[in-house]
Amino acid sequence: MPPARGPARGLRGRHPGTLTARGVDPGLDAQLGGHSPELRTALSELRRIKDDWEVDQLRGAVDATVQGFADVAAALGAAVRGGGERWLQGTFDRRARALGNGPGYASIVAAGANSPVLHWTRCDGPVAEDAIVLLDAGVEAHTLYTADITRTFPVSGAFTDAERRVYDLVHAAHLAALAEVRPGKQFRAFHETAMAVLAEGLHDWGLLPVSVDKALSAEGQHHRRYIVCGTGHHLGLDVHDCTSARPSAYHRADLEPGMVLTVEPGLYFHPDDLTVPPELRGVGVRIEDDLLVTASGAENLSAALPSDADAISAWFVS
Ligand code: GLY
Ligand code: MN
Ligand code: MN
Description:
Its EC number is 3.4.11.9. By secondary structure, the chain is an alpha+beta fold. The protein has helices spanning 26-32, 37-46, 52-74, 76-99, 161-178, 189-204, 212-216, 309-316, and strands spanning 102-103, 108-111, 132-137, 139-140, 149-154, 260-263, 266-269, 283-286, 289-293, 298-300.
């Protein structure tokens, strides 16, 4: 795709930065009608493979997002002193507006008991000095390609034992899933691998009422009580890109060079969930990276952000 030029006057939508002829003239809207499902599907499937220019846009979005995460790290003191989640959200979003078009989606800053809430976009809670923070945010480039990255870290620099246990299990699932991202693997393979690692860990902790095999079977899925979302999606002009692709072209398709996708396993223990021991209640952890499928494997575009427990704690609090 050639570099984007600014939209022609009159072709901006109601929302600044959107390239659309809709929302300008109601008469024109009526004539345009909706996109046919067939066109939506065709466009979604065409968007699955990014060309070099698109990959560069995504690299830029990821790099700007890493800068936004660094800004959040520098703002933790102000958040604890009274700014709360709002301050951290504003901090990231300001960077997104300065380096790109803005946040690619409503930024998620979830501290303490908000961390297991999917997705906590209210961002209106306090940030306690002993809290963990789940930060899920992405800068959208001026060309509208967006990053989508999550890190979870302790504000104090040290996880509690229970938080660390959850973190390490999610991290193990993350590493196992990343290893499944390469050409020729089915898209859903990395999700299934993450589910297997998480179900095994939950079983070891005594949280599954059935065997791991039973939980992983189609009629089981007991582990999903604590895993309320998928493990990844295509990424591009939309944060959830290519959503109108047919299943045969998405989850059941093989990965191909040029695809960009997220890998984002997590565990979410709600504060009022009496099926887990008290020390796990209110702990939510997600680790999300942005991957480019290459000819021989995958490149982690967001590798500048470490993901193991000690390294990410030190990255945010040092
Ligand atoms: N930020 C939304 C998602 O991770 O899918
Ligand atoms: Mn995502
Ligand atoms: Mn995300």
